[in-house]
Amino acid sequence: MDARELARRWARTWTEAWPVRDVEAIAALQSEDGDHWASMFRRYRGRAGLRVYLQECFAEESRPAEVRFAEPQVDGDAAAVEYWSVIYVKGQPTTISGCTLLRFDETGLVAEARDYSHVKEGRHAPPAGLFGAVPGLAPGGQS
């Protein structure tokens, strides 16, 4: 499988697994010794580390997240995947926009993931064009 298909599989898995908080589905994409950087200061080592990160994040969410991923941008064994999500903490919406840089190993698993994100209170629509139309939201605005 080439990096484009691997990145699409990664995005598809996150799209399906994040709203239902399926830690194992997401962790299965990570190599046993791969790194997941939640930011430049938060490194989670291996599949076990990624599980810890996901459990920490999902524990804050009070209802299913709304998640969208853009088409991966690929070069060699690496990909960049932009995402837009709305999570609910104590019932209140919070928008997360970000991009994850991925490098895949020879087995097709994530050897390194570096996540860069911005968080803003409220429910905000993504920029037009990247993620398709979001029902009930105008691009860049709140519902």
Q: Overview of this structure, please?
A:
The chain is built from 3 helices and 7 strands, in the order ααββαβββββ. By secondary structure, the chain is α+β, with helices and mostly antiparallel strands. It has one domain: Nuclear Transport Factor 2, Chain: A (Roll), CATH 3.10.450.50. Strands 1, 2, 3, 4, 5, 6 and 7 form a 7-stranded mixed sheet that branches. The termini are far apart. It holds the Pfam family SnoaL_2. It comes from Micromonospora cremea. This is SnoaL-like domain-containing protein.
Please name the defining characteristics of this protein:
143 residues, 7 strands, Nuclear Transport Factor 2, Chain: A, alpha+beta
Question: Could you give the topology of this structure?
Answer:
Layout: H1 3-17, H2 23-27, E1 30-39, E2 42-45, H3 46-60, E3 61-69, E4 73-75, E5 78-89, E6 92-104, E7 110-121
Parallel strand pairs: 1-7
Antiparallel strand pairs: 1-2, 3-5, 4-5, 5-6, 6-7
Short synopsis of the structure:
By secondary structure, this protein is α+β, with helices and mostly antiparallel strands. Helices cover 24% and strands 44% of the residues.
What is the tally of beta strands?
Answer: 7
How far apart are the first and last residues' alpha carbons, in Å?
A: 40 Å
Helix percent reads: 10-25%
Mind telling me the CATH class? Alpha Beta
Biggest sheet record: 7 strands, mixed
Number of helices: 3
In percent terms, what proportion of residues is strand? 35-45%
CATH topology: Nuclear Transport Factor 2, Chain: A
Low-pLDDT sequence parts: 133-143
Overall shape: it is: globular
Number of domains: 1
Radius of gyration: 15 Å
CATH architecture: Roll
Structural class: alpha+beta
* Nearest-integer average pLDDT: 89
What's the helix-strand series?
HHEEHEEEEE
Organism: Micromonospora cremea
InterPro entries: NTF2-like_dom_sf, SnoaL-like
Pfam family, one: SnoaL_2
Domain SnoaL-like: 12-112
